Amino acid sequence: MDPEFWLERWSRREIGWHLDDINSHLQEHWPTLGLPKASLVFVPLCGKTLDLLWLVSQGYQVVGVEISQLAVEELFAEHRLTPSITRAGRFQRYQVDELSVLCGDFFDLEPGDLGQVDAVFDRASLIALPPAMRARYAARMQSLFPQGMETLLITLSYDQAEMSGPPFSVHRSEVETLYRERYRIDPLASFDALPESAHFQRRGLTALREEVYRLKPLREAALTE
Ligand SMILES: C[S@@+](CC[C@H](N)C(=O)[O-])C[C@H]1O[C@@H](n2cnc3c(N)ncnc32)[C@H](O)[C@@H]1O
C-alpha cells in the first residue's frame, strides 16, 4: 500500500472507513485507560476522523499523522477551524489549539516529531496495511515508544481468503505476535460487524468481527498488579 494508493482513495472520495459519528468503542472504552486530562494522545493514520475532536473535547491534547493533505485540510475546514501551518521536518504541522495533525508519512516519524505522547488511539491503521507493512508499523511504533505506550486498538477480523484488503484482516493471534513481547493485551470487546457492512457482504464476506483491545506496556502492567 504505497502512499499513492491512499492519495487516490482520498481524491476519488473512496473513503468508506470514514464515520460520520464519533467511534462508539472509543467513547465506551477510552475512559478505562484512566488517562489524566491534558495528556497527549497520538492518533496514527488519522484520516479526518471525528475521534480527534472528541478526544480534544475530553480535555486531551491530540496529535495525528495522516499522509493525505486533502484529508487534513477537510478535517479542519469541515469543523470551521483555521489551522496554523508550519513545516516540521518532513511533515507539515496543522495546528489549532489542542489539536495538531502532521501531514506526511507515518514511516518517516522520528521520536522528536510527536512530543511527549501519553497514549495511542489506533482505529483502522493496522488493518489499512498489508502483512509486511504491519510488521514495519509495529517496529516503527516500538522505535517511537521504546518503553511501550498505553493503546486502545480497534481492528477487524475475517477470513482473508474471502476478500482481499484493505481493510485487511488482523486476527488476535497477529496482534499477539506483533505486541506481546512488550504489552499485556487485554481483549475488551468483539462485535459482529457483518450486519452493518453490506458493502463487505457484497464482496463475499460471510463473517466479520470488530475487535477492541487495550495494550498495556508490560512494565506498567507489572506495577499495577
Ligand atoms: C483506513 S483509514 C483510517 C482513518 C482513521 N483512522 C479513521 O478511523 O477514520 C487509513 C488512513 O491512513 C492514511 N495512511 C495510509 N498510509 C499512511 C502512511 N504511511 N502515513 C500516514 N497516513 C497514512 C490514509 O490516507 C487513510 O486516511
TrEMBL record:
<dbReference type="InterPro" id="IPR008854">
    <property type="entry name" value="TPMT"/>
</dbReference>
<feature type="binding site">
    <location>
        <position position="66"/>
    </location>
    <ligand>
        <name>S-adenosyl-L-methionine</name>
    </ligand>
</feature>
<feature type="binding site">
    <location>
        <position position="45"/>
    </location>
    <ligand>
        <name>S-adenosyl-L-methionine</name>
    </ligand>
</feature>
<protein>
    <recommendedName>
        <fullName>Thiopurine S-methyltransferase</fullName>
        <ecNumber>2.1.1.67</ecNumber>
    </recommendedName>
</protein>
<keyword id="KW-0489">Methyltransferase</keyword>
<dbReference type="InterPro" id="IPR022474">
    <property type="entry name" value="Thiopur_S-MeTfrase_Se/Te_detox"/>
</dbReference>
<dbReference type="InterPro" id="IPR025835">
    <property type="entry name" value="Thiopurine_S-MeTrfase"/>
</dbReference>
<dbReference type="Pfam" id="PF05724">
    <property type="entry name" value="TPMT"/>
</dbReference>
<keyword id="KW-0808">Transferase</keyword>
<dbReference type="GO" id="GO:0032259">
    <property type="term" value="P:methylation"/>
</dbReference>
<dbReference type="GO" id="GO:0005737">
    <property type="term" value="C:cytoplasm"/>
</dbReference>
<keyword id="KW-0949">S-adenosyl-L-methionine</keyword>
<keyword id="KW-0963">Cytoplasm</keyword>
<comment type="similarity">
    <text>Belongs to the class I-like SAM-binding methyltransferase superfamily. TPMT family.</text>
</comment>
<dbReference type="GO" id="GO:0008119">
    <property type="term" value="F:thiopurine S-methyltransferase activity"/>
</dbReference>
<feature type="binding site">
    <location>
        <position position="123"/>
    </location>
    <ligand>
        <name>S-adenosyl-L-methionine</name>
    </ligand>
</feature>
<feature type="binding site">
    <location>
        <position position="10"/>
    </location>
    <ligand>
        <name>S-adenosyl-L-methionine</name>
    </ligand>
</feature>
<dbReference type="InterPro" id="IPR029063">
    <property type="entry name" value="SAM-dependent_MTases_sf"/>
</dbReference>
<dbReference type="GO" id="GO:0010038">
    <property type="term" value="P:response to metal ion"/>
</dbReference>
